[in-house]
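For consistency, the fold was encoded as tokens, which produced the following:
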Amino acid sequence: MLLPVPDGEYQAYLFDCDGTITDSMPAHYLAWQAALAEWGCDFPEELFYAWGGRPIADIVADLNARQGLAMPVHQVAERQEELFRAGLPDIKGVPGVLEHIEDAYRRLPIGVVSGSTRLAVTASLEALGLLDRFEVLVCAGEYPRPKPFPDAYLRGAELLGVDPAKCLAFEDTELGVQAATAAGMTAVRVPPPWER
């Protein structure tokens, strides 16, 4: 069943990846738990979801500050991504969103705008057999400021050659919705797993 979208004449769709296209947030959480356990760091699940959409470097820095640790950001980020990729064969797509991707494919330009690395996004989309559906991928490190700033969404619209006001964004986090809205786009909030 298609996720309901606001009425409008949209010329492009932009999708966040984790938690929006892929039901990967539980896999990300397990990877975080395993990576952080190696440093004696605790990351409560409630906090993980509250921080959804934040850059990995910010998460590690805040966990260091809260728990008096000195985890090396780059090393923790690499380990988390390695553990996440190992769990990819088990991830599923988000119902309602997958139908929008298939409906728009070859009809509208569609792209991915993610706070995850290109490697993680590509691996996730390949695991679901969806990589070929997207004309552009905009990933972490490819825009100046993270969500909730509009930079990533503005870059996605630019690469697709579509006015941001004519784009519909699909997002699962409040930071992502804020970023899309700040870019002048209409945003659809993808409900978390416990609300589906």
In short: The first strand starts at residue 12 and ends at 15. The two ends are 11 Å apart (CA to CA).
